[in-house]
Amino acid sequence: MARLISLVEDRSPSLREVSAALTPHTGSAHIVGITGSPGVGKSTSTSALVTALRAQGKRVGVLAVDPTSPFSGGALLGDRVRMQDHATDDGVYIRSMASRGHLGGLSASAPQALRVLDAAGCDVVLVETVGVGQSEVEIAGLADTTLVLLAPGMGDGIQAAKAGILEIGDIFVINKADREGAQSTRRELRSVLAMTERDDHAWKPPIVLTVATRGEGVDEVAEQVAAHRLHLGESGELERRRLARLRREIEALALTEVQSRFAGLSGDARLDALAEQVLAGETDPFAAADTLVEHV
């Protein structure tokens, strides 16, 4: 698994062959995204949720995305430090990935890495994003179920997040609930969610209070994750989400391929000739671009 994910991250030439071999064995894993602002306890909550899922006999994969430094280009990949309790459990696989400058809270290689974990037989795959803000909501397009973590005492978190990240949550978790303000945070969150228009049969996101460092409330989170998975299957929403996810992945791969082809055109005589024609007024940039696309 480690070698396959490394092939994914390095965009190896053999990745096409690997993808073709893995795809028939995918589709069984429940992908659960865990997101929230920095400092809400995502890594600790992920570790506690792994414990709860393992108690249910589930095989668990964890994909933890760490931010890449814009200065050095490196990443600490330290999320695994908080998950040492599972290091010797052969029913758990934990992999850290660097975001490598990709926006949205994830790594560009995340979809293919998830395919590896799915094909390897993981029942549940937890995807922990980097600390995100209100617009970095890419996890909603990748996960079957999205957990949004909040914490009391971190300023007006609801007001800061509701423009984006609150709209993607299937389950809301108020971690560090032993702190003052947990109940008021829940009331404020509940009032914000009440203003969201939903169909009568739509899933209504629950709010769960946890203290991840002590494991309190985490079993309820695991129960809500299972309940949401059941709802997705019964409502047909699971297939809709996965089809949308595959459309985005196919589109991204196609765009990457087109960009790679155009990357080699900087010194191409055809491009130079088209530029000269535009300069001479013989054609316009749009027509020149159409001509170039037809011959790439």
Q: What is the fourth-level CATH superfamily of the largest domain?
A: P-loop containing nucleotide triphosphate hydrolases
Please mark out the parts with pLDDT under 50 across 5 or more consecutive residues, or reply none.
70-75, 101-105
Report the span from N to C terminus: 36 Å
**Strand content bin:** 5-15%
CATH topology of the largest domain: Rossmann fold
Radius of gyration: 22 Å
Number of helices: 11
Number of domains: 2
Can you summarize the main beta sheet? 7 strands, parallel
Spatial sequence of strands, sheet with the most strands: 3-2-4-1-5-6-7
Question: What's the helical proportion of residues?
Answer: 40-55%
The CATH architecture of the largest domain can be given as 3-Layer(aba) Sandwich
The CATH class of the largest domain turns out to be Alpha Beta
Give the integer mean of the pLDDT values: 83
The coarse overall form would be globular
